[in-house]
TrEMBL record:
Top-rank lineage group of the source organism: Bacteria
GO molecular function: phosphorelay response regulator activity; transcription cis-regulatory region binding
Domain Response regulatory: 5-121
This protein's UniProt keywords: DNA-binding, Phosphoprotein, Transcription, Transcription regulation, Two-component regulatory system
Organism for this UniProt entry: Eiseniibacteriota bacterium
Gene Ontology biological-process entries: regulation of DNA-templated transcription
OmpR/PhoB-type domain mapped to chain residues: 132-228
Name listed for the protein in its UniProt record: Response regulator transcription factor
Organism lineage: Bacteria, Candidatus Eiseniibacteriota
InterPro entries documented for this protein: CheY-like_superfamily, OmpR/PhoB-type_DNA-bd, Sig_transdc_resp-reg_C-effctor, Sig_transdc_resp-reg_receiver, WalR-like, WH-like_DNA-bd_sf
DNA-binding region per UniProt: 132-228
Length: 228
């Protein structure tokens, strides 16, 4: 079996070494680089299966790297997990909107990191084109074709927006969606959707879900996700 290859981009040596050590111990092959410029050249040259990308880098920032990698056809599909420090939520939002797949806030435990990377590589970048007609998670069952949702076997009456938001989150558990991503998913509704109305729909949706609403998590400063 060939080892999954991960490119770790982090200028702080201690953190980078620690990440590499833990990933290697889990059976990954790791390439370490310390700048955005090297990240791009290594991504092109070594074709890693996943990139762990620190946001705060000297020279090209993590966001610049993210934008550049998504713009190039050779690297557009490589999953990217952003590493951020606390307080960088707005950069995380930008990163996710530039096409990063997930993010982790430092400090994190090696175990948490490995679990997250496994989830990201499992769903890949094409997990988005999921065409399941029935999505089940926790006690919630979503029937796309019939446009029906049930909770513990009992039908639930949702508005179209609530239905679309729930479907989006439930199809991609553990994935954080920024408000803009949610707004994109709601387009087609015949009224303009704003950041604020996403929050309003979320309140309505959680209320209707009752105790199951706790599975939808507000990720402060970033967006929403449904926990697995
Ligand atoms: Ca850094």
């Amino acid at each position: 079996m060939t080892k999954e290859h991960i490119l770790v981009v982090e200028d702080e040596e201690d953190i980078r070494e620690l990440i590499a050590y833990n990933l290697e111990r889990e059976g990954y092959r790791v390439t370490q680089v310390e700048s955005g410029e090297e990240a791009i050249s290594q991504a092109l040259e070594a074709e890693p299966q996943l990139i762990l990308l620190d946001l705060m880098l000297p020279g090209l920032s993590g966001l610049d790297v993210c934008r550049e990698l998504r713009a190039r056809p050779e690297t557009a599909d490589i999953p990217i997990v952003i590493l951020s420090a606390r307080g960088e939520e707005s950069d995380v939002v930008t990163g996710l909107e530039l096409g990063a797949d997930d993010y982790m806030t430092k400090p994190f435990s090696p175990r948490e990191l490995v679990a997250r990377l496994r989830a990201v590589s499992r769903r890949g970048r094409h997990g988005v084109s999921d065409d399941r007609e029935i999505v089940s998670i926790h006690d919630v069952r979503i029937d796309k074709a019939r446009h029906e949702v049930s909770l513990g076997g009992k039908p639930l009456k949702l508005t179209l927006s609530e239905f679309l938001i729930l479907e989006l989150l439930a199809r991609h558990p553990d994935r954080v969606f920024t408000r803009n991503r949610i707004i994109e998913a709601l387009r087609g509704d015949d009224y303009p959707v704003t950041d604020r109305s996403v929050d309003v729909h979320m309140v309505g949706l959680r209320k209707k879900l009752g105790p199951a609403g706790r599975h939808i998590e507000t990720v402060r400063g970033v967006g929403y996700r449904m926990k697995r």
